[in-house]
Amino acid sequence: MGHSLGALTVRYVAAVAPEKVASVTTIGSLTLGSPLADWAQDVFTLPVIGTPIQKIAEAVGNVMGYVLGFLEGTQYEQDAHKLFIVLSSAGAADFNARFPQAVPDTRCGEGAYEVNGIHYYSWSGTKVFTHVLDPFDYLVSVTALLFNGVDDGKSDGLVGRCSSHLGKVIRDDYRMNHLDEVNQILGLRDPYTDPVSIYRQHANRLKLEGL
Prior knowledge:
Elements: E1 2-3, H1 5-16, E2 23-27, H2 35-44, H3 50-72, H4 80-87, H5 89-98, E3 114-115, E4 118-125, H6 135-143, E5 168-174, H7 195-208
Parallel strand pairs: 1-2, 2-4, 4-5
Antiparallel strand pairs: 3-4
């Protein structure tokens, strides 16, 4: 199971080592990239101010990566520059060309439910503001504006509704934003949607299907 950029990681593992994987589930996946990353690429190319902004954004991204790695007890090399490229529409298209398993043929469609013996599932949310005390909600309320005209304007704040599709789509309209999908921050989320319960239901789904 992989959330956000982690969705690309689990897809890669399933593609290169299918004998070790029974199922792949992506949550808030950037299967088709994100308008936010496309916007960032445009800003980075602006004359005079583009390069400084890019350097600052990459520095912040790298620091965040190192901090999260430290908290996890790992220290891997970080490269935020490549991150912005991978998360763009063009970057996603390149990744999908190399690892096409379960990618839908149409933007809002479903992909193959099973490839090379591996079952594929996905889900995501489309409610951006879910809790008044969650500072992340205010940020994604702004980034969600970039999705006007994309996937009917429906997104989790960072990923469009249809962009998250992979394999069998469980749901693409949960009352969750991008961080709610992994029960962050501090479990502050919509009172009518419990991410933990959704994961538990999916675990039971996989068990019943013998996976």
